[in-house]
């Protein structure tokens, strides 16, 4: 069992209310929800005919794409740091 305290936070994403339970701070959960909301609105603006399910999937694809790019950049930087430490 986890010793971390769980908090319940209600957020608004694309006009819908969601209750999110997690061990992160309320401000962190609200930031994540805000980013998801912003990305959904950005995609919807460019593709206004998308239904909510397709919009949600495209949002997930975009966010994961951004995550993979940042992860790859981090790994490249970590490799450079490791190489510098070895010299």
From TrEMBL:
It is found in: Cytoplasm. It comes from the Bacteria. Keywords: Cell cycle, Cell division, Cytoplasm, Septation. InterPro entries: Bac_CellDiv_Activator, Cell_div_ZapA-like, Cell_div_ZapA-like_sf. Activator of cell division through the inhibition of FtsZ GTPase activity, therefore promoting FtsZ assembly into bundles of protofilaments necessary for the formation of the division Z ring. It is recruited early at mid-cell but it is not essential for cell division. NCBIfam families: PRK14126.1. Homodimer. Interacts with FtsZ. This is Cell division protein ZapA.
């Amino acid at each position: 069992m986890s010793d971390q305290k769980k908090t319940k936070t209600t957020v608004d994403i694309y006009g819908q209310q969601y209750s999110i339970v997690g061990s992160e701070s309320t401000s962190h959960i609200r930031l994540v929800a805000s980013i998801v909301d912003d990305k959904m609105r950005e995609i919807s603006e460019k593709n206004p005919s998308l239904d909510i399910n397709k919009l949600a999937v495209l949002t997930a694809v975009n966010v994961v794409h951004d995550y993979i790019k940042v992860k790859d950049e981090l790994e490249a930087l970590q490799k450079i740091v490791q190489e510098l430490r070895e010299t």
